[in-house]
Amino acid sequence: MDKRSGIIRKNNRVKINFCVFVFILLVIALALWWYYLLPLADKFSLSLSVIAVSICISALTGLLIVGNMFAFANVQQSLRKLRGLKPKYVQMLRDDNFCINIMRQKIIAAITESLSVEERTDFLERLFYVSILCGAVNAVNSEDADFNKMLKKDLIKNGYSNKDGLRWFDDYVTQASVDGYEFFSLIEELVTSSGYKRFDVDKSIVDQLSTGFFAQDCIGDDMWTIRGGQASKGFTFKYTIVLAIISIIGGILLVTCINKFTVDLDNIWNTYRILAGIIISLGVFSVFLIGRYIFEATSCKI
Question: Quick one: which of 49, 32, 26 has its CA closest to 275?
Answer without folding.
Answer: 49
